[in-house]
Design goal:
6 helices, endopeptidase fold (from Nostoc punctiforme)
């Protein structure tokens, strides 16, 4: 699918499958095509926000991260497959989400990866701790916090693939993440 022109303010939910050992295990266990979720306020996707690896070669040190298609884990795994969803928002929601993400990034050392929550999610048990998230839990929190979707739109546990069901969202790209990013650059 090719990129389409957008109209009005929007945020972008990006679902990916990188090829890391952890992502391959998750794909086998869940059967899902995508097992990582990020959010961006820029349709070029040059900056995405999520909870994931702080360093591309260290899968056990996670937290709040800025991701880029050209660097970090996505840069290391240049064949990363992606599905990009455009989620329309009001101008106010856009500004609030943008400010929230930037503030979180400034305070990024305060946030931690919710390893226990991710593990328990496999057993359909929800575990949340303040300032701790796994990727799809974080994206859901942002969307709910700023009334882009209701609290009841997803269960207490949300897998990345379930974000595809986000009401009002529109798929604008499926393919290699780096190719999307390259097409966004002049």
């Amino acid at each position: 699918m090719i990129r389409t022109a957008s109209g009005g303010p929007a945020v972008f939910v990006v679902l990916t499958q990188t090829g890391t050992i952890l992502s391959q295990i998750l794909r086998v266990v869940t059967g899902d095509a995508y097992n990582h979720a990020s959010i961006s306020v820029d349709d070029s996707l040059q900056t995405l926000y999520s909870f994931g690896r702080r360093h591309p070669y260290n899968p056990v040190w996670g937290g709040f991260v800025q991701e880029s298609p050209a660097s970090g884990t996505f840069g290391r795994f240049s064949g990363t497959r992606a599905k990009v969803l455009r989620v329309p928002v009001t101008q106010r929601q856009y500004e609030q989400i943008k400010d929230h993400l930037e503030q979180m990034y400034q305070d990024r050392r305060r946030y931690h990866y919710n390893y226990l929550g991710l593990l328990l999610a496999f057993f359909h048990l929800a575990y949340q701790k303040e300032d701790c998230y796994y990727c799809s839990e974080f994206v859901k929190d942002v969307l709910v916090r700023y009334d882009v979707t209701g609290e009841d739109a997803f269960g207490k546990i949300v897998k990345p693939m379930e974000l595809m069901e986000l009401s009002g969202s529109r798929e604008i790209y499926t393919g290699v993440l780096a190719e999307y990013a390259a097409s966004a650059c002049p």
